[in-house]
Fold these 4 entries.
Entry 1:
Amino acid sequence: MKVAVLDINGKDTGRKAELSNDVFAIEPNNHAVYLDVKQYLANQRQGTHKSKERNEIAGSTRKIKKQKGTGTARAGSIKSGVFKGGGRMFGPRPRNYSFKLNKNLKRLARKSALSMKANDNSIVVLEDFNFDSPKTKNFTSILKALEIDNKKSLFVLGGLNNNVYLSSRNLKGSEVVTSSELSTYKILNANKLVLVESALEGIESNLSK
């Protein structure tokens, strides 16, 4: 699959980038995508939720009324969950929501997500670029040139570039990652996937194993 390479002004450079069919043109596996996205979102959860149970409530331990003869249900503690101010019954406890997926499934999920974007013509290949210093307006000008300033976009770089990363950090609709940080969720969450030329080799080598 060949895609035109654009410059930072949104103009065709006249060159073509070759996208591997083994990565960008496979039959998407929807279940693999579902599991990988589910794992990503589960890993974002802190799992620190907690409510007090009856043994953690401060209160009297005396029996609040006699056992029989009241005509109502028996009750032994004011800390019971059936009373106002009592402990919560079956409340949330701290837990770890993460779960394991094997590497082959995660690799298949990412290839499926990239193939979905390729099928939708949502992939843009951009020539390598850099900024002299971090400036948001420089990054915004690229978004406008590519006509994606009003869309969610994900820029994939070949390696860490602080000037580009810091220039995009204030923009809610755009995110910059390296090829090694690419995830299924981030691919699908973006309307446009912008791949810098130097990132292509890293993506294909990571996913062609």
Entry 2:
Amino acid sequence: MTYAVPPTRTAAVVRQLRNEIISGELPPGTLVKDAELAARLGVSITPVREAIAQLSVEGLIDIAPNRTRHVTKVTQKNALELIDVMSVLACAGFEWGVENLTSTHIDLMRQRQKEFVEGLRAGNTLAAGAAGADFSTIVILASGNRELQSMVDLVVARTLRILAMGAESELWTTWIRGHDAILELLDCGDRRGAVERYRQIYVEYRAQVESHLFDVG
């Protein structure tokens, strides 16, 4: 999978910090300090502050009234709420876009699915998560509704973070099996069936998060 080089220092800092939060390198509750981050990343304070503001919008960093910043903590309640929101947005985009898919789109989805599986086998959850997200993005963008994709983008990082928390669980398997089934249905021309199978992924995913992911702690 190829990744675009961020066009600005702020974008580079956003990507770096987002990846560190999703992977758990910056654990929930970690105090975020501008100067320390700027020194570690070799940039000035300005792009760090701009990046923190962006990640706050994405829900990955909490900014308290006294202006202290912490990596957002994940609870079962907000995880389930996030899944419900993501389900509404992504399933709508998938339904709107599926009828516009061409053979080229489906080939790209198959490639992203391959990268998804390979990333997991290599233990690279960041690459796997990005490829898995792209699988859905291809369909959502086929709908032609870029406003919807922008809304999905705001919550996708938090969704990937939940998946990373369950790296050793069956959460990933739910998506792999679901994607494989969707590709088979699309190959057979059953686009309505593909939409229903996509919805089912979220039903199974939510149930697993509710039942297992927060058992410890």
Entry 3:
Amino acid sequence: MGQTKGSEMKQELFLPDDYRPADDEPFMNDRQLEYFRRKLHEWKQDLLSDSRDTIEGLQDNTRNIPDVADRASEETDRALELRTRDRQRKLVAKIDAALRRIDEGEYGYCEVTGEPISLKRLDARPIATMSLEAQERHERREKVHRDD
């Protein structure tokens, strides 16, 4: 029989369905962390489910299409779908990184300045690693270097 490791088992934190992180509570308290953990897990599950559906669809649609225009159209659709899946795969990696930051106590803080990232920004983009100001500076620098 296996042993239960008490210290490794986390107690489920109760969050009401209508809970939203608020600025008037301590930043990244247990409720906020649980809120973002659940949001990230749900997002990841949705992406993985979509990915499974795509793979099944691509396998089902492998057929010989005699018309050249129809075949080209189907190949274009397939390429677009695969590109979308690749973007989603990268997104899943970012979600996993955000979940790691939650576990390590680093979630919600800008990787550039160390300042808290606004709750509004995190709610809209829970994988954000920079505050809005740091992100804008980063994008301006990137644009300048791209124009060289």
Entry 4:
Amino acid sequence: MAESADRHPRIGVIDDHEISILGVEHMLSTADDLEFAGGAPTVDDLLATTHGVTLAVLDLRLPDGSSPRANVEALHAHGIDTLVYTSAEDPFLVRSAASADVLGVVRKSSPAAVVLEAIRTAARGESVPTMDWAAAIDADESFVVDLSPRQREVLELYASGESAARVAELTYLAVDTVNMYLDRIRVKYANAGRPAKTKTDLYKRAVEDGFLPMPRRDPAS
């Protein structure tokens, strides 16, 4: 997103760990060309409380169970670019974010100078070429399964706990048709090297691909 000459990019941080937000704020305080706009534990909270953000520094695992893809799309809808800032312990989440058109991925374990330069580059609307992001993009074709809108609808309902009969009722399909869709979905995942033989497997794949929200974490954990 282009910035006017008299305004510095405003950086918002979305992370449920306050220490991470404070860390980025401190890094930005050393830069005279970037401005810390605020931090929040979820995308909704940031959008509700912080204005004028031009770049979001986004953690992938948030307390509201939102998927990386949904978060990036919500930020894009408000004209906000995204840089993923993560420990990268879950490659599925990194790939989900990469498929949603983020500007890059930077590890929290990176030196402060590296993180700051990544933020500066992303704030200019430029891609941040890190190994984590490159690996996610390279793996994207084999990772993300291409489902039709109808297949996705069936998967979302069935994987979230509905029976095949209930899915048929909700989608105005025959039960046999629903089962046919599920069979085709399983074949697609198997061909991608991500087998989904059970209903639990399908739920996991739906979460990994951002079709369903991640389970909420226990706040005490």
